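Hey, resending since the last one bounced:
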Amino acid sequence: MLPLVLLPGLMCNERLFSPQLDALSGERRVHVGCIAGADNVGDMARSILDSAPAQFALAGLSLGGIVAMEVVRQAPERVQRLALMDTNPLPEPPDVAVARAAQIERVKGGALVEVMRDELKPHYLVEGPQRASILDVCMDMAISLGADVFVRQARAISGRPDQRETLRAVAVPTLILTGESDALCPMDRHTLMQELIDDARLVVIPGAGHLPTLEQPDLTTEAIRTWLVQR
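The structure tokens again:
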């Protein structure tokens, strides 16, 4: 059975996919890739390819989706299925790059907790009974990864390439998934990806923002499981 490689988002680790790991690990080999060691998307993708099976299904969320697109650009023959979740195929707009550079400087000055708490976390999730506990998980993941990882990953996001041509060439079963209320990666980015990839399937998860794997784990797992057997 085709192995599955999962790529987490900014300042996230395997805990981002805990419900999916619990549900899917008994069905196939599942591996969460590390994208914490480089400051550009190209090197992140190469590190994933170095550790991945010869052929695999690839799913990435947010920054993980950005890296997944670069993995496909570098080695399309190895990726047999592709899932892009709450992510963006376009380069960073100049005004957002300026704001991100300011975040980087704040984090380098010791303000990782403040940047995550005040500038990033409030935009991740929809309101709901699990919001506080999920935000605590997000903060725990960020603190465990540390400031140096934030700086590297933020630089990678800011310098990400335009992947529209990469997506036009994708010819494998593809899932485009987003939380209905994702404030970081708007719906039009996801409809764009669906338009660029022939026969891509768009799934919108209700009651979720930027992290549907944790906000609506059952619906997200169901969508991933369906994609993994899609013809």
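Residues 41 and 156 are 5 Å apart (CA to CA).

Sorry for the duplicate.
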